[in-house]
Design a protein that fits this description.
five-stranded parallel sheet, Rossmann fold, globular, 5 helices
Length: 110
């Protein structure tokens, strides 16, 4: 499991919660540090904030979808619906969670 989130509070909360559910997870404060790491496997789940500094979360999702067998992607955002739709237009197989995130919603997605 990989978490791409620039807000340290959100990132830390997600990491702690997911580890409590028994998942192994890594956090990245931006897309660049994620892209410098080993590529994710098809069994991975990537949680990515759509509004990252530098390379956007939507661009990361585009890249992930070019993989032969892409991982599961969950986008998170606090943006208005119109902005979300504009950013994910043309992307496929994406689940979107709105911030603030609840433990119940996250657990149901896993």
């Amino acid at each position: 499991m990989h978490i791409l989130e620039d807000d340290p509070g959100v990132s830390d909360s997600l990491l702690t919660f997911l580890k409590g559910l028994g998942y192994e997870a890594c956090t990245y404060p931006d897309a660049e540090s994620f892209l410098e790491s080993a590529p994710p496997s098809p069994e991975d789940t990537i949680i990515v904030d759509l509004l990252l500094p530098g390379i956007s979360g939507a661009r990361v999702i585009e890249w992930l979808q070019t993989m032969k067998t892409p991982p599961r992607v969950i986008a998170i955002t606090g943006q208005p619906q119109a902005a979300i739709e504009k950013q994910i237009h043309g992307l496929r197989n994406i689940q979107v969670l709105r911030k603030p995130l609840s433990a119940e919603t996250i657990a149901s997605m896993m």
